[in-house]
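User: Structure please.
Assistant: Input sequence and predicted structure:
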Amino acid sequence: MHETPEDLKRLQALLDTSYEAAGAHLRSIITPDRRVSAADLVDRLSGMCLLVVATVSGDGRPIAGPVDGIFHRGDFYFGSSPTSLRFRHLRRNPAVSAAHTPAESFSVTVHGHAQEVDVKSTAQAGFRRELLDVYVPLYGKGWERFLDAGVSYAHIEADRMFTFSMPPTRPAG
């Protein structure tokens, strides 16, 4: 866990204000006992978290697709090629929504704006270290060269974030 006490406090405030502003339908599904606290969320989102990220095309169409997501210091980050359609959309319109839904029993949804980050900058040293900790064991030391060759990463500055968790249901019988 890389989150500071301040990160957890900020994340919990975001989760609380998002929930309070949610509509009746969403609140009927994400009941108080199905919410996930900030502390529990950071524990559940270690390593790579597959995200489905939606961006906005030039003519206003949503375009969604899967990306590797990293939850770092209470925020989602994701990577792609700097020439990808996704990053071309974000450079024109940074509005983004993303969902991590590994199972029917758990999900995290975030809405906000994505900003590209420079993983070589000293300001992103902690995030870079986390990337290396996640991917080098999987792909070997050459992954750092891959990262430095031009993979782009974006940070989602969340306006709203919703969590959902409940034990999987078992069929009767």
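The chain has one domain: 5-165.
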